[in-house]
Specification:
The complex is a heterodimer of chains A (370) and B (560).
Chain A: H1 9-20, H2 28-36, H3 40-64, H4 70-78, H5 80-112, H6 119-134, H7 138-163, H8 180-192, H9 200-203, H10 213-239, H11 241-244, H12 250-257, H13 269-298, H14 305-310, H15 312-320, H16 325-357
Chain B: H1 22-28, H2 36-47, E1 53-60, E2 64-71, H3 77-89, H4 100-111, E3 117-120, H5 123-131, E4 134-139, E5 145-149, H6 178-186, E6 194-201, E7 207-214, H7 220-231, H8 241-248, E8 260-262, H9 265-274, E9 277-281, E10 287-290, H10 302-305, H11 308-337, H12 345-354, H13 362-382, H14 385-405, H15 411-425, H16 430-467, E11 470-471, E12 474-475, H17 520-524, H18 532-538, H19 540-559
Antiparallel strand pairs in B: 1-2, 2-4, 3-5, 4-5, 6-7, 7-9, 8-10, 9-10, 11-12
Helix pairs in contact in B: 11-15, 11-16, 13-14, 13-15, 13-16, 18-19
Chain lengths: 370, 560
């Protein structure tokens, strides 16, 4: 194994944050409000907790096998056939996740800004961006996410801050919801938005100091979770839960109602979508990269470069399968909740088996002694 | 040269019919002959066809025939007369010296007092030295020739560098002469650690390229790599460091320059002290600096010579200008043709009013204006200076004004284009500004097709490209992108010197620390020397009178 240990803690945290913040932010207040009304922030916090759980399970697993990714160590834990099936599921799931994210954002763009542009164009443009950059190595992967991070966090924060002056705090009460079952589904739906952070299972072997992956995981997920929470609070505070249930992308509506001070820009929705391209790109980049990296590791290819454009047609076709926006969101919610089995339950199972069997990676002789 | 036998190849080189390099091959194994005529014949054959080739025959010690050869356009004739021929002619008074060994000894140790004088046996090297402006003295019976440096080539005076002007800072710029340029650097780094390694590049031009660095700071692998890349260059002529830049850069197809060039010796020195390597070439007033990261292109030498707040402010303005020059026209096109609802209503009305008579969509309008701006700019550079100044004013004022009143462009478009152009002028590095100038056009096209979404796609493509660039293994966006916080102190803001304690870590300098102390000492080493309280303690009696007198005076004047 000749892995260059080069990722710093900050880079890892940045990758995690930008993998989570993506197109999911746009319908997020809707998911939260539909599940529990004014208790939306609580649902979001619950989803974030599930996200934390998933990341920490992967980190504890990764710490056991510091020189291997989840694809590589799973056969040692549960045996080859089951591990192969699990890895195939991971690859399939992230391929589908990539397609759905590209499709979702393509739909947003076509519906709200470029009404005359065909959906196919916006989808393929986003996929091409991700595919092109996914050919690069893990170092550039990390650099890219670090550079984009401020441009991802800033627009969300700006919109939250500017819209809070229109917020009505009464809309956020009661903070506790009532219907347990629907709240549970809501938590799962929101938790599904954190699935990009599964990439941590592939990053630990590349980290310069794997022992600090807990720090990286904590900060990476926290920053994203805070932004999620703020956006949900702002959206519910401005519109009220009942109104949000009638909006498809409440975050976008939030941008529409806010204007920059001194009237520099009257509405922010088009600008927000434009800036959000960066956030969507990084999310797509993570899931695309994860898909081809997992494939190359599963089939023991030398590197992942050639796979990048090879799987592009497949991803594009999957992206175009849903027939309408309504169907798209049905699929997204369903796939997301199903994905939790892969991104949380499967690693949890691996961790359980590994700790029972006391399976561990080879002694970390080539881990840096710093 | 008809008598030369080797004529089967018809490639005509200058006025002889021989193949290129044949002369070199002939000379390769030749040594200086004891027979004087033989030497003369060889030189005559090789260089004789040049009109400025001169052979001056004379005798030394009254009996030994000798001759002097030089190229009359390359040497200083006065120095040749005074410092070479005069002592040689004076040998007739020294009496007779018979054996060739004695002649050589006498000439070397008693007669030729010129500081730059050496002996050589190889004919090829002698010819090359003559071509470089030395003169050679051959004496009958000797197996060596004297090579004396009396070279004089035309060179201009050291002037202020026209491409990198500063308000505060040294005014000297590099000139074409390599010797003078190295002198300018050495004058600033008076340390034996400053090294210059010479490599000859170019099959015909054999240009002298100097790799300069500071030993013990620059990374050894980097120095090795630079020399390696330079020595691998296989090209006939190198006339400027620009040739070298293209041949050693990592990504030739990228619009972004990966090598920095400068005309300023102080900038070259500053970069060497940080751990970079500078490449100078004889005949070029520019120095190349490697490795280069993007942030260097908006930094100037002045950022360090002026106070840090001032420097940071100006640098911030430059970054804004850089971004402007890339995205401003495309943003304008995108907002106007796709999202006019973004801009405030009153302004939108004004814009629409201005565009009322314009027949084209804003995309075409901006594109036409941008192209004509590029043409104007190129014309201003190529025209003689006296006319150039007039043209730029004529171009901007008259054409812009005329275009607006003819209903060809809206006034706001003209403003946008003007701001963009000025923005691109504010970037200190011409080649980096050029990259963004070029990329402006695809950006405008994307804006015309996809609006703001397209602008963002364009920016992402550019950012992704830039992120994957490397200059000698250093990531192009560092220190921003690997997240190096030490390096970020000199990114957009230039922090005070005491906070920049280390050299840029991306360069892996052998000597990492800039200062030996902890840095805080640099800040707090001041004593309030002239504090009145202290002064009073030192010389109480004398200090009292003078201030009191002035106090009285001012009090008196106020009361009047």
């Amino acid at each position: 194994m000749n892995i260059q240990k080069q990722l710093t803690t900050i880079q890892t945290a940045a990758i995690l944050t930008s993998s989570i913040i993506g197109v999911g932010v746009l319908p997020l207040p809707l998911f939260a409000a539909r599940a529990a009304g004014s208790a939306g922030p609580l649902i979001t916090a619950g989803g974030a907790a599930a996200g934390f759980l998933g990341v920490f399970i992967l980190i504890f697993l990764g710490r056991r096998f510091q020189n291997q990714s989840i694809i590589q160590y799973s056969p040692r834990v549960i045996g080859k056939p089951i591990a192969f099936a699990g890895s195939m599921l991971i690859i399939l799931f992230f391929a589908v996740l990539t397609s759905l994210a590209a499709r979702e954002f393509g739909t947003v763009v076509v519906t709200s800004v470029l009404r005359k542009t065909p959906l196919e164009v916006t989808v393929i443009v986003m996929l091409l961006l991700a595919a092109k950059q996914a050919r690069k190595d893990i170092r550039i992967f990390a650099y890219t996410h670090l550079l984009y991070l401020p441009f991802i966090l800033a627009p969300g924060l700006i919109i939250v801050i500017l819209s809070l002056k229109n917020a009505e705090w009464l809309y956020l009460q009661p903070i506790w919801g009532t219907e347990w079952k629907r709240m549970g589904t809501g938590v799962l739906t929101v938790a599904a938005l954190f699935q990009g952070s599964f990439i941590i299972g592939f990053l630990i072997p590349y980290m310069r100091r794997p022992e600090r992956s807990v720090t990286a995981g904590f900060w990476g997920v926290s920053i994203a979770a805070c932004l999620y929470l703020l956006i949900v609070i702002a959206a519910i505070g401005v519109f009220g839960a009942e109104e949000i249930k009638n909006l498809l992308w409440p975050t976008l509506e939030l941008a529409k109602t806010t204007s920059l001070p001194a009237n520099i820009l009257e509405r922010l929705d088009a600008a927000f979508i434009a800036v959000w391209v960066a956030a969507v790109f990084t999310t797509l980049y993570v899931s695309y990269f994860l898909t081809i990296l997992a494939m190359s590791q599963l089939f023991r290819l030398k590197d992942h470069k050639a796979l990048s454009f090879a799987i592009l047609p497949v991803i594009f076709v999957i992206a175009m399968l849903p027939q309408s926006v309504a169907q798209l969101y049905e699929v997204i919610e369903w796939v997301g909740r199903f994905g939790l089995l892969i991104t949380i339950a499967y690693p949890a199972f691996l961790l359980l088996v590994a700790s029972i069997r006391r399976a561990k990676g080879e002694s970390n002789s080539n881990a840096p002694a710093r | 040269m008809a008598k030369r036998p080797n004529t089967e190849q018809n490639r005509v080189n200058s006025n002889s019919q021989s193949t290129f390099g044949q002369k070199n091959e002939q000379l390769e194994k030749q040594n200086v002959q004891t027979a004087l005529q033989e030497n003369e014949r060889i030189l005559e054959e090789v260089l004789g066809s040049s009109y400025d080739f001169v052979i001056r025959r004379f005798t030394v010690f009254d009996q030994h025939a000798a001759f002097l050869v030089y190229l009359s356009n390359m040497v200083e004739i006065e120095g040749l007369n005074e410092d070479v021929l005069r002592p040689l002619f004076a040998t007739r008074q020294l009496g007779s010296v018979t054996s060739p060994e004695q002649v050589m000894h006498a000439l070397q140790y008693q007669v030729l007092y010129h500081a730059n004088c050496q002996l050589d046996t190889g004919m090829l090297r002698i010819v090359h030295e003559i071509l470089q402006g030395k003169c050679a003295v051959f004496v009958d019976g000797m197996q060596e020739a004297f090579l004396i440096g009396v070279r004089q080539v035309q060179r201009r005076a050291v002037e202020q560098p026209p491409t990198e002007q500063v308000i505060q800072g040294p005014r000297e710029g590099f000139i074409e002469s390599l010797d003078r340029n190295i002198g300018l650097i050495r004058y600033r780094v008076q340390t034996p650690d400053f090294q210059t390694d010479i490599i000859h590049v170019g099959k015909i031009t054999k240009s002298k390229v100097a790799v300069c660095y500071i030993q013990g700071i620059a990374n050894d692998e980097l120095i090795k790599e630079v020399k390696q890349r330079l020595s691998e260059i296989d090209i006939d002529a190198v006339l400027d460091v620009g040739y070298l830049e293209q041949l050693i850069e990592d990504h030739p197809y990228s619009p972004f320059p990966q090598v920095q060039n400068t005309e300023r010796p102080d900038k070259a020195v500053a970069n060497m002290v940080e751990g970079r390597v500078t490449i100078l070439m004889d005949g070029s007033p520019f120095a190349l600096i490697v490795p280069t990261v993007f942030s260097q292109f908006y930094q100037t030498a002045e950022d360090y010579s002026s106070r840090f707040l001032q420097a940071s402010f100006v640098r911030l303005a430059r970054v804004v200008a850089l971004v402007f020059s890339l995205v401003f026209p495309s943003l304008y096109v995108a907002i106007l043709s796709y999202n006019p609802e973004l801009i405030p209503t009153q302004f939108a009305v004004a814009v629409a009013g201005g565009r009322a008579g314009v027949p084209f969509p804003s995309f075409v309008e901006v594109l036409i204006m941008e192209v004509s701006m590029e043409v104007l700019r190129e014309a201003t550079i190529r025209l003689p200076q006296q006319v150039g100044g007039a043209l730029s004013i004529v171009g901007v004022l008259v054409i812009g004004q005329a275009a607006v009143s003819a209903g060809f462009a809206s006034p706001i478009t003209v403003v946008v284009i003007a701001l963009t152009t000025i923005g691109s002028f504010a970037t200190p590095a011409y080649n980096a500004a050029f990259a963004l100038r070029m990329l402006r056009f695809p950006m405008i096209a994307l804006a015309g097709m996809f609006g703001l979404y397209g602008v963002m796609i364009g920016l992402i493509i550019i950012a992704n490209h830039v992120l994957s660039l490397k200059s000698f293994g250093v990531s192009y966006m560092s220190p921003a992108s690997p997240g190096n916080f030490q390096g970020m102190k000199d990114l957009v803001f230039r922090l005070p010197f005491w906070s920049m304690k280390y050299r840029p870590s991306i360069l892996h300098a052998s000597n990492y620390k800039r200062t030996s102390n902890t840095g805080t000492q640099m800040k707090h080493s001041h004593h309030h020397t002239l504090d009145p309280m202290k002064m009073k303690n030192q010389n109480e009696g004398a200090a009292d009178e003078y201030p009191e007198a002035t106090d009285d005076h001012t009090d008196g004047s106020h009361s009047n």
